[in-house]
Amino acid sequence: xxxxxxxxxxxxxxxxxxxxxxxxxxxxxxxxxxxxxxxxxxxxxxxxxxxxxxxxxxxxxxxxxxxxxxxxxxxxxxxxxxxxxxxxxxxxxxxxxxxxxxxxxxxxxxxxxxxxxx
Length: 118
Fold this sequence. Notes:
- The longest helix is centred in the middle third of the chain and has 19 residues, at about 45-60.
- It is built from three helices and five strands; from the N terminus they run βαααββββ.
- Helix 2 (about 30-35) packs antiparallel against helix 3 (about 45-60).
- The protein is of the alpha+beta class and about 120 residues long.
- Helix content is about 35%, strand content about 35%.
- It is elongated, with a radius of gyration of 18 Å.
- The mean pLDDT is about 95.
- The relative contact order is 0.29.
């Protein structure tokens, strides 16, 4: 039985978040947490929040089953593009530069068992 957590409208560009998501894809949850805690990327804080939520969702879906974090693994993790806020910045000679403040939606799926190597 797998469990899923979705973190929506995270104010980080999807490209930067995908770099962090690639670090933990297919890893066990305890290894993934260690990687994220030692990462210097700002997006890792959002990923660890969603990972903890996915583990809690798994525990809530399976109350009769006691599983540790070393038994769960990250089955799927993907980042979709969220809404983009468009802003204008004044430029010389009466012009304006467009600033796009991107956001993303992060989805993490955890499952029990051994990760499948691809």
